[in-house]
């Protein structure tokens, strides 16, 4: 298995996955490398800069968001939303641009360095940042704009209708749900860039985070299409229980291997 995927799988298997380990693994997967050890140093430097901008004021979620997501800090990439770089925290910090999820993850990791605990809230089609224990949510993609939970609900209902609203939309994203969402964002960006290998890495991350027959089928199909038949067969055998008919999936894997003889 890809080293970054192995780290991701091991981390998500822990009772309380370390968000920085997950973020570093996902960023490495997006970058096409085994690891990004410099990411932690970049987060340290950014946290130091934010502490300086706060000038001794208490580190609350709203105060931190106001300096972290302002115009000369991190901001939403409205022109190149589907850029692969928007899925790498190292590139997000370097460029100052990102998508809601990765901008929010930077906030989570900078916040914990400064004693402020953030969590990500996954609305359909959007991610917001919330200081744990409060009712205030920040939109990292929109300059850190602040809204109460009630205001978020009202805006959603106005745009999508009351029937689409669920109170669970304001639940914090768990590690697997967050990683699965990140992997799907990366897959879309990789597809837009016509990068088949990166699409496969993203599918691998999604399979680790939120295993499903559909993701397995997509990854197996991609591997077969580029001639990696043994890899496809091995993956199908390993995850046959995800298929609607596990026995048929194992038989298919055997036939793939037989076809090479």
In a nutshell, what does this entry contain?
With 261 residues, the protein is an alpha+beta fold. The chain has helices at 3-12, 19-31, 38-54, 61-68, 89-95, 100-113, 149-160, 175-192, 196-209, 213-225, 229-238, 246-258; strands spanning 75-76, 97-98, 118-123, 126-131, 136-139, 145-148.
Can you give a write-up of this model?
With 261 residues, this protein is an alpha+beta fold. The chain has 2 domains: 3-170, no CATH class; 211-258, no CATH class. Helices cover 57% and strands 9% of the residues. The chain has 12 helices and 6 strands. The strands form 2 sheets. Strands 3-4-5-6 form a 4-stranded antiparallel β-sheet. Helix 1 runs parallel beside helix 9 (196-209). The mean pLDDT is 94.
In total, how many beta strands?
A: 6
Structural class: alpha+beta
Looking at the structure, what is the overall shape?
Answer: globular
Write down the overall mean pLDDT. Answer: 94
Largest sheet: 4 strands, antiparallel
What is the percent of helical residues? Answer: 55-70%
Low-confidence stretches: none
Strand content bin: 5-15%
Give the number of helices.
12
Following the backbone from N to C, one meets helices and strands in this order, namely: HHHHEHEHEEEEHHHHHH
User: What kind of assembly state do the chains in view correspond to?
Assistant: single chain
Q: How many domains in all?
A: 2
Computed CA radius of gyration, to the nearest angstrom: 20 Å
Cα end-to-end separation = 24 Å
Spatial order of strands in the largest sheet? 3-4-5-6
């Amino acid at each position: 298995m890809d080293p970054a995927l192995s780290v991701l799988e091991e981390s998500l298997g822990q009772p309380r996955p370390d968000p920085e380990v997950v973020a570093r693994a996902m960023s490495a997967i997006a970058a096409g490398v085994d690891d990004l050890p410099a990411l932690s140093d970049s987060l340290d430097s950014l946290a130091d800069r934010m502490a300086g901008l706060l000038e001794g004021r208490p580190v609350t979620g709203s105060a931190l968001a106001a300096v972290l997501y302002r115009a000369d800090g991190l901001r939403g990439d409205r022109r190149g939303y589907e850029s692969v770089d928007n899925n790498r925290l190292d590139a997000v910090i370097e460029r100052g641009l990102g998508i809601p999820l990765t901008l929010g993850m930077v906030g989570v990791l900078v916040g914990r360095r400064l004693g402020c605990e953030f969590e990500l809230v996954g609305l359909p089609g959007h991610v917001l940042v919330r200081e744990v224990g409060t009712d205030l949510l920040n939109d990292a993609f929109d300059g850190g704009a602040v809204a109460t939970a009630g205001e978020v609900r009202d805006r959603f209902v106005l745009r999508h209708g009351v029937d689409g609203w669920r109170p669970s939309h304001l639940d914090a994203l768990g590690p697997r749900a967050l990683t699965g969402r990140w992997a799907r964002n990366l897959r879309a960006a990789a597809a837009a860039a016509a990068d088949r290998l990166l699409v496969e890495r993203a599918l691998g991350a999604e399979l680790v985070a939120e295993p499903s027959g559909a993701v397995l089928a997509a990854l197996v199909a991609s591997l077969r299409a580029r001639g990696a038949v043994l890899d496809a067969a091995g993956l199908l055998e390993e995850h046959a229980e995800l298929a609607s008919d596990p026995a048929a999936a194992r038989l298919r894997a055997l036939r793939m291997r037989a076809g090479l003889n």
